[in-house]
């Protein structure tokens, strides 16, 4: 099944003919501004299994509460405008996008409490100083000229500084308190990657296990913090398919093997939730 990305100028959609459920996606810092590109492989595979994908872009900022509120509002508008209200709703977030998914559940509680489950890929709740390695890793996928502009706009410098008087809103400690006291989603899939030493999956797992017991699943897969990133490459077929194309496809598929295993794990978990 071939699906085409659609946009209303704010949000990106993949809409199968008869969707089984809705996936609301929020990407990581910087790369979350273009989810239809940086996460196309993951999101297109989910759409092929019958998931309506609602991918909300955002511009990285230190006010995470405001980003989450805007994402929740955008999701609500999208569900209404696309006729998706009433379908099972899942959240999916990578790195900072996972934190924003949590906060968006609290920003509009009536919508957050309706979620069937949330999926966290390399979840990050780092403070500003500790987040710099995460941001620098994600920034590898961003054009350097635009990245410098973003840093100047966001932090007041042409390079990533450590301004100790700045902190994300809410802070890591405040976010942890909100999770323990208000987070409403019982079913959660946490995906950690073996070569990732900058995520916060173990702590989130402990928090959710204390809150909801055995409803939280923790998977540790091959890969690193950037494994969720991946784009679809349109290989040629038929008579135009050359030996060079065959080698390129082999290299591409092996390079993205951890990404594909991650996708299969997510699909299996979603299928179980919808069974």
Task: Explain how this protein is built.
With 275 residues, the chain is of the alpha/beta class. It has a single domain, classed as Alpha/Beta hydrolase fold, catalytic domain (Rossmann fold), CATH 3.40.50. The chain is built from 11 helices and 8 strands. The protein has helices spanning 35-38, 40-48, 64-81, 96-107, 109-112, 128-138, 144-155, 172-182, 201-212, 243-255, 257-274, and strands at residues 6-7, 12-14, 21-26, 51-55, 89-94, 115-121, 188-193, 216-221. It has an 8-stranded mixed beta sheet, sandwiched between helices. A hairpin with a 4-residue loop joins strand 1 (6-7) and strand 2. Helix 3 packs across helix 4 (96-107) and helix 4 (96-107) packs across helix 8. The longest helix has 18 residues, at 64-81.
- Overall body shape: globular
Q: Level of helix content? A: 40-55%
Estimate what percentage of residues fall within beta strands: 5-15%
- CATH names the topology as Rossmann fold
Poorly predicted regions are: 150-165
């Amino acid at each position: 099944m071939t699906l085409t990305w659609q946009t209303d100028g704010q949000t990106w959609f993949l809409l199968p003919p008869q969707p089984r459920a809705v996936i609301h996606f929020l990407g990581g810092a910087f790369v979350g501004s273009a989810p239809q590109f940086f996460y196309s492989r993951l999101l297109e595979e989910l759409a092929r299994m019958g998931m309506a994908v609602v991918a909300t872009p955002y511009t990285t900022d230190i006010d995470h509460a405001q980003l989450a509120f805007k994402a929740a509002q955008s999701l609500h508008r999208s569900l209404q405008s696309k006729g998706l209200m009433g379908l099972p709703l899942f959240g999916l977030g990578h790195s900072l996008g996972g934190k924003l998914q949590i906060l968006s559940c609290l920003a509009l509680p009536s919508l957050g409490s309706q979620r069937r489950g949330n999926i966290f890929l390399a979840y990050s709740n780092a403070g500003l100083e500790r987040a710099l390695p995460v941001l620098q890793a994600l920034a590898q996928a961003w054009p350097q000229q635009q990245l410098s502009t973003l840093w100047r706009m966001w932090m007041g410098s042409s390079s990533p500084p450590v301004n100790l008087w700045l902190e994300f809103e809410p802070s890591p400690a405040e976010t942890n308190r909100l999770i323990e006291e208000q987070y409403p989603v019982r079913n959660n899939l946490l995906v950690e990657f073996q070569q990732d030493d900058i995520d916060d999956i173990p702590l989130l797992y402990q928090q959710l296990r204390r809150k909801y017991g055995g409803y939280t699943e923790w998977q540790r897969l091959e890969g690193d913090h950037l494994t969720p990133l991946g784009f679809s490459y349109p290989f040629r077929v038929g008579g135009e398919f050359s030996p060079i194309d065959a080698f390129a496809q082999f290299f591409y598929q092996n390079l993205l093997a951890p990404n594909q295993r991650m996708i299969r794990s997510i699909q299996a978990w979603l299928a179980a939730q919808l069974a």
